[in-house]
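Anyone? Bumping this.
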Amino acid sequence: AQTVTQSQPEMSVQEAETVTLSCTYDTSESDYYLFWYKQPPSRQMILVIRQEAYKQQNATENRFSVNFQKAAKSFSLKISDSQLGDAAMYFCAFMDTGRRALTFGSGTRLQVQP
Amino acid sequence: NAGVTQTPKFQVLKTGQSMTLQCAQDMNHEYMSWYRQDPGMGLRLIHYSVGAGITDQGEVPNGYNVSRSTTEDFPLRLLSAAPSQTSVYFCASSYGGQGGLETQYFGPGTRLLVL
């Protein structure tokens, strides 16, 4: 079984600044996917970014990028030029290729200060 | 495409009652899952399906049943509701393909309150 750990229950960042959210995971699988999801107060689960384990190149989506360290089992999310709309809960999640279901971390609540 | 739909949006049950949470997807995805989210926590996997007719338990399956008779539908049944099942329930589906396009698509969630 895999586990996902987010050690930062809350983070705060100033508008326009950069923040990094941490995530570590544990698995015996060699092929898998990693995700960051954003959950605003509406509870909708919004995909932020996806990383395939077989790709060494870190994924990037506009202001969002990841630092994927497969050997260290680390998957951090960097948000650049933070905006007020980025304030939400952020969940790191692991997907194995067998079940195609997710194992989630406990989440990090991000506050963005104007 | 409606994506993943869930009904109802909100439900109040009394302890011991049973009910079915409906989930449907129109993307022809093979893989579907049910999760629950308790306050201040991440989502936890209840049951999942890798195709029509094939289901299996996740991390927190007790008190829930599922079936998958069609690719589109994946209902979750609460057999005898308990206050501990008060939660927000999410249904999700995945393409299951290769090539880096894998994503889990979520429904809007069902809020369940068991009194």
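Late reply, but here is one note on the structure posted above: The CA atoms of residues 12 and 62 of chain B lie 20 Å apart.
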